[in-house]
Amino acid sequence: MKNIETYIESEYPRFEKDFFEFLRIPSISTDPAYKEEVKAAAQWVADLLTRIGLKPELVATQRHPLVYAETPKVPDAPTVMIYGHFDVQPPDPLDQWKTPPFEPTVRGDNVFARGATDDKGQFLTHVFAVEALLKSGEPLPFQIKMIFEGEEEDGSESIEAFVSENTGKLACDCLIVSDSTMFGPGKPAITYGLRGIAAFELFLTGPNHDLHSGIFGGSVYNPAIALSKMLSQLIDEKGRVQIPGFYDKVVPISEREGQQFADLPFDEKEFFEGLGLVTGFGEEGYTTLERRWARPTFDINGLTSGYQGDGSKTVLPSTASAKITFRLVPNQTPDDVYKNLEAFLQKICPPGIKMRLQFQHGSGGLLVPLDSPYVDAAEKALQETFACPPVFVRDGGSIPIIAFMSEKLKADVLLLGWGYDDDNLHAPNEKFSLTSFRHGIHASVRLFRQIAGMKKP
Ligand code: BES
Ligand code: ZN
């Protein structure tokens, strides 16, 4: 073990160099203009895996490629699978970045770039840990599989098909994922729940072309007004979603879990101050952590209508549209939300306005059982690395494919985030702490060492 740690420390400058090179690839999966860049990122990952001694497959799919690799089978020992995603969110708004999003820049302990924490830096920790194990010269005491996709930020359709068609090949006992957050700097966490998501785009059309708002205003329904009225009816002043049936299947927060959340050292004031706010907002009767981790929500992610340029323009726009998402908790389903939302929007759509609701993607919420030997192993590995016991948390983000993979492959799930809540995921100036990066590599090696002592379940 000792030489593995020494190997990591001596190679660390190169790990950073590789990581930064990876960050230069603008692998934006949601924008078709970046298709080749997503492919380049897949190739980069495959090349890295080849360099560490594996024989990766670059799998072409209907959309973006994915990368798969495995080490040799080890009889009677467990098999673990590492999952990660090499695609990133669009970097917009560009003018708010202090340094360009695809030119990784170190300031203090952080590297700033799109994808730094979500998820390039986080999943690379496991790849470098595997490299360190392989280079130690000793045979691996258990089998490691790795799957990396390029569509996580866009619904994970291709990997879903790949997993469905290859359950035998991908069989594993434990799925290890680092694509979430720690509880705070130096405070490791084991995440046992994620929210699901249902994403839509709503298109409204009024008159068949843009109109002069003086000549026509007041005589036809303005689609932008229709859009704002319809959207505002989806949620009330108490933060309750107003779609009939929305809460029907929601699993309530137990008293015990509510108490566990309340016992966490979460400083509400500091949290909102960090966001430049004096107070939060959310569903009445729930704490901030409950609202973020265990209650469903509605959000508007983008609004488009009328004139967006400088200065004014007296236009009555012909169309208006909105990108909207719901975060879901167990046992809500995207299908139910779609059905109920469509019926409700049809009902409240004003006269003279045509609506079209397009379903984008969806996945259910996830709750991971904690009575797994891998959770015990992770607890020890995190304690050793951070000199602090991990806390058990849920998180509000979604990793759509995890529930599906864990069910199909009958694998336990370990969600070990190395990021921080203030890493600016999906926002300008995304960052990742280099201390986290280094700790993540060591924690991963320590986790593998724990697993090495385990028998196949
Ligand atoms: N890494 C995030 C998910 C996440 C972030 C989980 C923080 C827990 C804590 C992931 O890359 C992500 O952003 N997922 C999307 C999925 C969606 C586009 C289908 C999300 O949650 O918005
Ligand atoms: Zn993300």
Please report the first level of CATH classification, the CATH class of the largest domain: Alpha Beta
Average pLDDT, rounded to a whole number, is: 97
| Low-confidence spans | none
Find the CATH topology of the largest domain: Aminopeptidase
Strand order of the largest sheet: 1-2-6-3-7-17
Helical stretch count? 13
Global Rg = 23 Å
* Quantity of strands, as a count: 18
Largest sheet: 6 strands, mixed
How does this model look, in words?
This protein has about 450 residues and is of the alpha+beta class. It has 2 domains: about 1-195 and about 365-450, Zn peptidases (Aminopeptidase), CATH 3.40.630.10; about 195-250 and about 295-360, Alpha-Beta Plaits. It contains 13 helices and 18 strands. The chain has helices at about 1-25, 35-50, 115-135, 155-165, 165-170, 225-230, 255-265, 270-275, 290-295, 335-350, 375-385, 400-410, 435-450; strands at about 55-60, 65-70, 80-85, 105, 110, 145-150, 175, 190-195, 195-205, 210, 295-305, 315, 320-330, 355-365, 365, 390-395, 410-415, 430-435. The strands form 5 sheets. It has a 6-stranded mixed beta sheet with strand order 1-2-6-3-7-17, with helices on both faces. A 4-stranded antiparallel beta sheet has the order 11-13-9-14, covered by helices on one side. Strands 4-5-18 form a 3-stranded antiparallel beta sheet. A hairpin with a 2-residue loop joins β4 (about 105) and β5. α1 (about 1-25) packs across α13 (about 435-450), α3 (about 115-135) packs across α13 and α4 (about 155-165) packs parallel to α12. The longest helix has 22 residues, at about 1-25. The radius of gyration is 23 Å and the shape is globular. The mean pLDDT is about 95. The chain binds ligand BES and zinc ion. Zinc ion binds near residues 118, 153, 425 and 426.
